[in-house]
Design brief:
The chain is of the alpha/beta class. It has helices at residues 17-20, 37-52, 56-60, 85-88, 109-123, 137-145, 151-156, 173-184, 204-220, 244-247; strands spanning 98-103, 128-132, 160-164, 188-192, 224-230, 250-259, 262-272, 282-287, 291-294. It binds adenosine-5'-triphosphate and magnesium ion. The site of magnesium ion has 4 residues, from helix 5.
Amino acid sequence: MAKPSFIIFHMPKLYIEPLKSINMPKASTPKTKKKSSKTEDVEKALEESITTSKVTKTVAKPVKATKPVSKPSSDVRVPTGIEGVDELVNGGLLPGSLTLVTGTTGTGKTIFSSQFLYNGATKYNEKGVYVSFEEPTDNIKEHAKKFGWDFADLEKKGMIKFVRYDPYHIEDVYELIESQIKQLGATRVVIDSISALGLYVRDSPELRRMIFNIALLLRKLKVTTILTSEILPDQKALSRFGVEEFVADGIIVLYYLRTDSQYSRSTTVWKMRGTEHSHKLHPYLIQSGKGIVVYPKEEAFIKM
Ligand SMILES: Nc1ncnc2c1ncn2[C@@H]1O[C@H](COP(=O)(O)OP(=O)(O)OP(=O)(O)O)[C@@H](O)[C@H]1O
Ligand SMILES: [Mg+2]
């Protein structure tokens, strides 16, 4: 393969200071460990939302798993199939987990999400639902062709379903997501992006409740989910609303930052509950015919 064009420094230390100031749960915190007050807040809010929100009935119903989904264990994995990514997370995502893929605009969140579903359908025989709150689904499918992914064919075969959801009609969002997943029998789900909801739902508590409820619903359905969230260029938090990271089991951050005279792509696994994972910053590329390619044996050095 041709040598990648990014600048790779084999540096032992990373300089991404601004993010270090965030009070995040530790990456590999075991579930039995004492919960942080923030985690408790989230769980309390989740409980509240179960008892007070309209979605309660929908999510409280027993959900028949469309495919046997094992309890999260270190042996059972849902591989993303994205070159280099599974090596960073000990073989793949945990079944039924929710992973936030976050980054500034253009970092490849939509490509990552598409690749996760495409690989699921073509390599692992897993059906997937792509819920887009943002980009028209025809655009996503059209762009995917550049990477060699024929989603139209997979849709015809009933392996993938794209749904563009108009966030103006938020009251139906839970029913829509649930019915699409159940109808298809999907075990992989993408929600792209959760940030788009904020453009329509101005009331912060309501928005948080929605994010909690969506996460709760996806957990009940036992699907393995990629949730995307956009970070603003100067933002120090890991997500737009500062709550998405707490409902997620895992966080993969995509960076597009300046290294001298050019911008380089790099990624890190910020947290991944219940599993070992890389704590380094790795370079990645977006390549025609391939999509995202991460270099797990390389380290990236970024000057901020
Ligand atoms: N065929 C291609 N070959 C190489 N790079 C590409 C190709 N198509 C897109 N890209 C890169 O991917 C970027 C867009 O990726 P994507 O749409 O997944 O980003 P995103 O993080 O979802 O952005 P947004 O937050 O705006 O939705 C482009 O800016 C470009 O740099
Ligand atoms: Mg996108």
